[in-house]
Amino acid sequence: MNTTTGWITGFTAADNFAWLYLTHDGGTMWQHQAIPLPANAVQVSTIPPVFFNATNGVLPVIIPSLEGQTVNIYVTHDGGTSWSTTSPVPTSATAGTIEFIDAMHGWIVSNTCDVKSNQYINSTVYSTSDGGEHWTHHNVKLSTDITMLDFASLTQGWAIDSLQFLYQTSDSGQTWTKVTPTVT
What we know:
Strand content: 35-45%
Number of domains: 2
Order of helices and strands: EEEEEEEEEEEEEEEEE
Number of helices: 0
Largest sheet: 6 strands, antiparallel
Helix content: under 10%
């Protein structure tokens, strides 16, 4: 956030604990930040928060369960002093497949594979325009699973799949086109 305030995130197998620490003195002292987790949350992974100004930010949290993994987007409007959760997204998302361009607009990708053959089936791109309260999903089929996502605007974005192919969208992630490099 600035030269003295920073965050540490990570993974823990501890029950009902999120690895989220905050410093206001350049890293000399760290304070644990508690967030409201679902009951029986274990093996929680926090991803570094993204702040859009001094007060508004998002914190992606991956929460596995027996029913399947969810990504919960936590929001703050007080610079990270407190966090509240939004609607969870049932997804296999990883850090590189979660993207927010501002406090209201974000995307999360979930990749689906056949359990028996471990073959890629499709990807689901979830998008929000209300800070994670509601999510819209679009099923897309690429060469293989999406490993990285990056949006430059509300409509323009790029994805990279596990074969390192680049894809582009100009409709907020509803459809994707493979980008063919031009060699000169």
